[in-house]
Amino acid sequence: MESYYQAGFEKFKKELNYSYEKVPFFKKHLDSAGAHPSAVRAISDIIKLPFTEKQHYRKNFPLGVLAQGYKPNDRRLTRSQSSGTTGERLVTVEVGMLLLNRAVKCARINPAIDKVMSNYAKKTCRYAAPNCSDVECANPNSTMEDRLLLDGTLVLPVYHDLLTTSEELIDRALEEICEYKPDLYYIDPTHFAFLVRQAKARGIQLPEAPVMATYTGPTLCARNQINEAFGGRHALIELLASSEMGWLGLECPQGHLHLNTDSFFLEVIRDGHYAEPGQTGELYITSLDNGALPHIRYKTGDAVRLLDKQCPCGNRMPVAEMQGRMMNFIKHKNRYLASPYDIDQLIGSPQWLDQYQCHQIDENSIVLKLMVNVEFEPEAGDQLAARLEDFLSNGITVKVEKLNYIATERSGKFHATKSDVTTPAFFGEANEIA
Ligand SMILES: [Zn+2]
Question: Which of the four, 280, 295, 313, 395, has the lowest number of CB atoms within 10 Å?
Answer without folding.
Answer: 395
